[in-house]
Amino acid sequence: MNIDVVAALVMGLAGSGHCLAMCGGLAAAMGYQRSPMRLFWYNLGRIISYAIAGFIVAAAFFSISKVHANGLVYLRILAGIMMVLLGLYLFRWNRALLWLEKAGSYLWRYIQPLTQKLPAQKTSGYVFLAGMLWGWLPCGLVYSALTWAALSGDPFSGAGFMLLFGLGTFPAMFLTGVFSQKLATVLQSSSFRWIAGLLLIGYGIATLFIAAKQL
């Protein structure tokens, strides 16, 4: 299995508790968790936005491998560092990726007003659109995943990476909303955050070692 595929799923699953706190809280506030279909369409929209972001980022970095022979190796080093920072982020050391979320807030200034203009009726189409809009909410977890999407080599692979990342977050987001709040309690517990954080830090360090050998 390609290491980037593993990275996508690991990041999505490990960050499920963080997703529940952010996107899950929004879904609950808007009443989507009361309906399995609305929750499905909301999360589908969110994941599609991740895939679009992956396409854009991968397209932006596509030329690096053409210009510099070790361009992708340096990007992998960056991705490994971001994985370590993400692990610290899950430890609730928010400063680890706070600077990145502040950078993303500039784009969010233009998107956030659109969420207030959505019609009150919550049809599947509007719920899907709401999910797409909220998928651009500044999030260190998503931005860390995007550094890996940049490594993919082409825009469609970048979109595929972020699609897998989004699918990694989907089970917790959907099952918690539909079946039980006990799952949310487990995923947001300090024990789960420490296990997930240590896993990501270990994965990031291993990635740095692999990239260093390629230089």
UniProtKB/TrEMBL annotation:
Domain of life: Bacteria
InterPro entries: UreH-like_TM_dom (IPR039447)
Segments traversing the membrane: 6-32, 44-65, 71-91, 126-146, 158-179, 191-212
Domain Urease accessory protein UreH-like transmembrane: from-to ranges: 7-205
Keywords: Membrane, Transmembrane, Transmembrane helix
Protein's recorded name: Urease accessory protein UreH-like transmembrane domain-containing protein
Species in which this protein is naturally found: Aliidiomarina iranensis
